[in-house]
Amino acid sequence: MSGCGFPAPGAEIFQFDAVFTFTIGSLEFHITKITILLFICVFLILGFFIYAFRKPKLVPRGAQNVGEMGYLFIRDGIARETIGKDGDRFVPFLFSFFFLVWLCNFMGIVPFAQIPVTSAFAIPVAFAVIVYITWVPLGIYSQGFGGFFKNLMFPPGVPKAMYVLLAPLELLSNLIVRPATHAIRLFANMFAGHLLIATFSVAAFYLLSASLVGIIGSVASFIVAIALTAFEALIQALQAYIFTLLAAVYISGALHAEH
Amino acid sequence: MSAPGGSWSPYGWYRSGAPKRTVSMDDARRMSNSAWANSSRLMSGLILYTGLGWLLSRWFGHQDVLMAVGAIVGLSLSYYLLFKSLAHETREDQARHDRDSA
Prior knowledge:
The complex is a heterodimer of chains A (259) and B (102).
Chain A: E1 20-24, E2 27-31, H1 33-52, H2 62-83, H3 91-106, H4 122-143, H5 145-153, H6 163-206, H7 212-255
Antiparallel strand pairs in A: 1-2
Helix pairs in contact in A: 1-2, 1-3, 2-3, 2-7, 3-7, 4-5, 4-6, 4-7, 6-7
Chain B: E1 2-3, E2 6-7, H1 25-59, H2 65-101
Antiparallel strand pairs in B: 1-2
Helix pairs in contact in B: 1-2
């Protein structure tokens, strides 16, 4: 790199050395910071909701109140609105996903954690695959194999002759592009957000020197980093919501034929 | 096509003066599904037919123009599908509304 020598953070800030490794059979497991944070997220969510609903009262207070608010938000805001009257069956699924994805994203702005778990591409892919292997069998089960693929390949309202060109397009769109973008959308948002925060934080240190330009540059970068952190807090919740909403949209599409 | 409470049109319901229309749960479900489906259709047409053009161009000895043609055809088909399916949804919407208000 030529120029000023600013150590711009790149993809390497998402690479972590293994804390420890172990081998089962021929599979080698590398436990990194990301893995540990993922486990912490899972246990925090389990812990919170088990605590919140340990002795449910008719008039909720404290943690139970927060838990019920979260539950109602998912049930009324996502499940019933997107899936319809069958939506209640899928509330536990969507509820788990929303809070897990949110907490995983939130790790990006937690001091010392400071990496969104979902910025490791494997994690959103795993989440999206779980959603995928939920709605595809569900669609085949509820619409029948022929009906499900007919629904996936032949969009209504198009002249019959055009199906030759459009059916492969629609199949690719429904079976590959939609699930792929489901994972990529979450990953890319978290990756880019973390990179932005890291860049401005590094700049705040790098520009710091005992000169007017140094102080102004450093303080400005620091303020931008703080502002971006607040912005990320918004994006994290939003992306968790969108991920859950899309999971609900796919389940809805599997349950209801378009016409 | 006039419904009680003024003539109803699927266009411009968001404008001031347009008759108030409540969005039912089923409407919301259909709308969110179609919004997400259409954004991925745009991408799929481009990917599929550009890929097809690339394969053809390899077959015919690297005539890269085929890939460009594929991209244009793919995007056109995507837009065609988008317009057709949105038009269909609008017609369905209108028919459903007429049925409900009849």
